[in-house]
């Protein structure tokens, strides 16, 4: 039997509407507010999940 590592990648998404002089300013504003904790994404913001599987690597000393 082989060993596998499976990564579970969840994506959360929230849309925020702001007024700004440019798209770059809007992004900077929301990013700053997110870093300050104004926006906290949780289970209600779930968008999708992906599963990625790869073989687990054995160390070189395995079986010696």
Explain how this protein is built.
With 64 residues, this protein is of the alpha+beta class. The protein has one domain (4-54). The chain has one helix spanning 23-35, and strands at residues 4-12, 46-55. It has a two-stranded antiparallel sheet. The longest helix has 13 residues, at 23-35. The protein is elongated. The mean pLDDT is 93.
Number of helices: 1
Largest sheet: 2 strands, antiparallel
Shape, per Cα inertia axes: elongated
Q: What is the alpha-carbon Rg in Å?
A: 20 Å
> Which structural class do you get from the secondary structure elements?
alpha+beta
The order of strands across the largest sheet is 1-2
Order of helices and strands: EHE
Oligomer: single chain
Q: Residue ranges: pLDDT <50 for 5 or more in a row?
A: none
Instruction: Measure the end-to-end span.
Output: 19 Å
Quote the beta fraction. 25-35%
Mean pLDDT equals 93
Fraction of helical residues? 10-25%
> Number of domains in the coordinates?
1
Report the count of strand segments: 2
Please outline what is shown here.
With 64 residues, the chain is of the alpha+beta class. It is 20% helix and 30% strand. The protein is elongated.
Highlighted features:
64 residues; two-stranded antiparallel ribbon; single chain; alpha+beta; 1 helix
């Amino acid at each position: 039997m082989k060993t596998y590592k499976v990564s579970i990648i969840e994506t959360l998404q929230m849309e925020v509407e702001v007024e700004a002089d440019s798209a770059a300013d809007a992004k900077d504003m929301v990013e700053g507010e997110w870093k300050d904790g104004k926006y906290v994404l949780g289970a209600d913001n779930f968008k999708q999940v992906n599963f990625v599987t790869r073989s687990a690597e054995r160390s070189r000393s395995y079986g010696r």
